[in-house]
Structures are given as C-alpha cells and as structure tokens.
Amino acid sequence: MNTNLDIQNILVLKKMYELRHVGLVADALGKTSSAISKNLSKLKTQLDDPLFIQTKQGFEPTSFVEANIQHFESIISSIGLIKPEGFAPETYQGSIKIYANNHFWQQLGDKLYLKLLKEAPNAKASFLHWDTNARNRIIDGEDAVAAHYFDETLPQSIAQTEFGRGSVVFFVRNDHPATDVHSLTDYPVVLHKTAGWNDNKYPLIERLNNIGFQFTPKAEVTHPQNVHDIVLQTDHFGVTTNGSVPEGCRSIHLPQALNIEISYVMSCRRSQQQDPLNQWLFRVLKETIADNRR
Q: What's the mean pLDDT in 126-148?
C-alpha cells in the first residue's frame, strides 16, 4: 500500500463516508463531481481497495474503510492541530539580543530600549557591540540579530533586510568657516571607525572620492562621542547621516545630484528570518528609525 497520501484526498474520503453521494460531497467541498471522482480514484489505487461500492441507496463503504475510518479522521484532526508559530510581545519573558555599532547605540539605543520596554515589558534586552566576532557568531547560528549598514561581504546564509535609510551629511561646529561641501576640502576630516564595517577601508570616503571629493582622514576614532568632541574644538569635520548631527554642530549636505544613501539593515540567519520574534524586532527597528527622522 502506498502511504504517500494527499490530505485533500483523505478529506474527500471522510466526507464521502458521511454523505455517501459524490454530488453532495462536491457541493460540500466546493468542487466538481469530476474532481471528487478523481480524488477517490487516486486513493483507490494508493490504498488498493475500492473504498465505496455503489448500491441503490448510494455508495456504501467497504470493510477496509469501516475498519480505518477512525484512523483517517485522526489524521485530519492531527493536521488541524498544527498551528502557526505564535509570538506575543506583551507576554514574552525571554531574551532579546541585538548587535549594533557605537554610533547606532548612541543615537538610537535609548529610543529602541523604551520601545521594547513598552511592548515587551517582561523581556530581557541585551544591546551588544557589533564587531567581527559578533559577525561570525551570527553566521555560525547564534540566536541574535544585528542592526547595521548593508554589508556585501556577508554570506548568503545571512538575510539582510532593510529597515531604514539615511543620507550622508558632513557636520562641523556651528561657527566653522566652511559653508558648503566644496570648501570642506580645505579642512581635515575625523572619521568614526566602525568595527565590522570599515575596519580596513572607508566605503563612504571611497564613494566620495569617486565622485570628485578628495578627503584624507586626519584622525580615526572608535567612539562617536570622540568625533563630536574633536569637531567642537577644532576645524575638523565629521561624517554622519541626516538626523544624527550632534548638538552644537550643523550639517553640510552633499549636492542633491550627488546624494549618497546608506541602508540600515537587520541581519540574522536566513533560516531565522521568518521567526515571529525576529519579525517583531524588525518592525520595532523600522519604527524606531522612522520616529528618529521626524
């Protein structure tokens, strides 16, 4: 006997057992009589039994069907017990682990935490530093997500889903003499070195150089607050995204035609992308960065 049974065919068999009439079964299941006959024919072959015998009173089940109808009903009942994986933030008591760079945490860490606290008050949140080790742990299957910039070097096993965009801007202290991006070429730039993103090269500087703006870094630091402090006390300028210009500074935008956008992505194992927890975290990240732009 072929045990590779189609659940739809079993549903037809059960309904046929109840109604004993092909036309009535077709009406009940929203199918044609021809389709019902095909379902039953396939089952007859698979189960090696006639299943139903036509009589003047209708179709009578064979002894095989009578002996096994409870098993068929049990299969249908078991299928009905299979439910989508659920997730309710308000009752969740597990851990939430998010990796991000220092700039992200400085700009959005408190806003993200307050949003998580409001929606999942019983969860434990861990906001951790994104670096090469964290990158490798996620690749190896750690149950965590990362919020960072799109990274073309990550393998296909890692899903990178965009949750927001930002435009590149320069920033200087409020009384800095530079008035536009062209005049900035006369001044040194201090760069934020972001682990796991620009450890070995600066993608933004390369892109700016490619469109005609030649900037040579004067200093590179690992904490965004240091960039802010240096810019406030010197003629240096920094690079950031719109909405992230620190207090006491003003932004200098690239010309509209040369605007450079940065994609903010949530990364996790592709196999975990549809996990309800991760889907919820993606929504929260998306709302957090959108709120910060207002």
A: 90
